[in-house]
Amino acid sequence: MTTLRFGSVTRREMILSAAVAAASRLGAQSANDVIGAARDLMYQALELLSPHASAADVTRAVRFLRGALDQYPAFGDAHYYRYMCLRRLNQEPALQNNDLSAARRYESEALRDKRDPFVLAVPKLDEKLDRVGEKWALVVGISNFSRPNGEVRLPAAAKDAQDFANLLRDPNAGRFNHVKTLIDGEATQRAIKTELNEIATAAKPEDIVLVFMATHGSAREDDIRGVSYLSTWDTDVQTKSDMFATALGMIDLSQIVSSRCEAQRTIVILDTCHSGAGAGKKALSAPEIDRLRDGAGRYVLSSCGDDQVAAEDKVRGHGYFTASLIETLKARKGCVPLKELFAQVQRDVTDRVKRVENITQVPVMKSSDNAPEIVLGAPPGSSGRSCTPVA
Residue 248 contacts by C-beta under 8 Å, 6 or more apart in sequence? Predict the structure, then answer.
């Protein structure tokens, strides 16, 4: 996006100045405190919004967005979503115009990306799209976080992601022709959102899209407002406000998957709660998983249940979950239906972790009500329901 100037001041400078000014009005609060509190309120509003949201829910969302803008008046995304809510309610046309102008002025990412929480990218399947088009994957793994204020190290996450990406590229297994990896310092909040949006923009209805993320995740219980986040390389965890300001909101991921990605075969794999993550870490909660399967053709795989941790195999240097995914796909040369693949991985992980680590870890899979069968190794141009292993 072109950087515009107002006199000698850029928009970004103006936005930062507004955050600093808001922080100074509130005394000791830092700019991150202000931005973090505002983002948290906005995410709470977004969790109320969907194609089937009632007028009461949209009205509640408007109240949350007003609170976000009270905290941070230069918050472009909050202005944009309030505009969308008021338009949905057919209320306050003057305020709609003001909010849309403010969203442009403060460089709203949601406006730029044309996000619409009231629309599903794939409301129903097109049965005529049997053949696989292109195959897109974004694979993120973060073992080493930024210092001094980043998350604690996750020994296996980067290796899990790199090895899984290599498997997806393998012409004898994954057969994906577009695989982007973001490992450690590459996996900033901005980079992850950029790559997600690029895939969502590029993928066509007949394509397969896969998103794999191995990092820390925060459960709803960690936030008084019940919002979950994924830690990026540059997430600051000194305080919860710092984390809210710098992490990737699960709502960001779910909105891109449900309302922007038109691929009828979309898989999200989350390995987000590792046993080495430190005391108090919990897996992402069921509501976040449910939002990711909104629409048609969505599958979500999680490495463990929401009251469990994901164990790491110190001998092999992998998480048990990703290791089993890789082993099973390799053994079947990619030609295994996703439901069958998951059933085998679930049995393997549950049994192995109980036997070796003496803890309970049961991977979870959820899908859209009308999700088609997917074979991850199906080559472009083939039927998405089957493939023939290479001899």
Answer: 189, 192, 193, 229, 230, 231, 232, 235
